[in-house]
Amino acid sequence: MAHRIVVIGAGYAGLTAAGRASRLLRGAHVTLVNAAPDFVERVRLHQAAVGHTLHKHRLADVVHGTGIELVIGRVTALDAQRRELLIDTRGEPLGYDTLVYALGSGPDTAGVPGTAEHAVEISGPDGAHALRDRIRERAGRGVLTVVGGGLTGIEAATELAESHPLLRVRLLSATDPGDALSPRGAAHLRRVFDRLGIDVHSGARVEEVRHDAIALAGGRTVGSDITVWASGFTVPGVAQQAGLAVNDKGRVIVDQTLRSVSHPEVYAVGDSAVLRRPDGLELRMACATGLPAGWYAAGAVAKRLTGREPRKPYTFTYFQQCISLGRRDGLIQFTDRDDRPRQAVLTGNTAVQYKEAIVRGASWAARTARSTPERRRTAGESPPIRATA
Is 328 inside any structural domain? Predict the structure, then answer.
């Protein structure tokens, strides 16, 4: 019987892992499980929120001719002892010999009362389209508040303010938005906020989200016709409920070859895993870190199934952060290998074109991971071809 490799989650990390595993292990049976039928370019969802039509990448088309079995359905439970998955669209459990866990992350709406009921999030297509529709219902007018000053919040606020100039866009953040940027990068970000008329409130801690207002720490309340939640991410509870070793946020703890420290038949990649370099630096959630992790994990699986061990631990070198500031401006913050900002930045249309190349490259790399390394050229940080197991 062929060795059964099951990859759950078809984001950047999971799709890459499935594609490369199917190429390296032609005698294995590779199954890819995903809740939705499309590969979603998550880094473009702020564009969908303002009405842009994103290209659909049907997973059935992506895996056609690869030998990968595609299962569309949501993983509801993992039985790590029996090595089986329960999927809401299947009557029978799906068994595996090796599992690549890549379920990704979603919005953290549980910590603040009223968030799930009254706020909109844009971590998935449904949320992005719901926000688009709510703005249209108000004819592009009113007060829209983005909660969260990280990159997701910054990109959402600037995209919305640029596309809907009649909206009054407010950005609430517990910290200074862009506080991890260089002085040049932070200065450009402030100029963009001013140019787009975005009302930025730093040091604002949200205590409750209401249907027409937001309650802040200290007793202050601000009105909000539409609230967009972009403050933190959480991961599905499947791994924790199955008894895999996880950290306090439910992310799978892996060794230097991306293998679960508690269940050696499980590898974890992407946002659902705690990825660290050999020097201990924890990598941030991003397609730039997830995509090469998926590439590496597939190589590690292939090595072990053919009686060898990975030659090197998984490592990653940062190079840049790419930030959209609407369709006509952007910010490329170059960094050192440890993600600390350098003085060098790109801004304006040059940054727009630069990021577009990165985004297209990441999508293409994930969807073509089955092709041979010699034919692949991957844009972005630490290309997968360098993440050799």
Answer: no
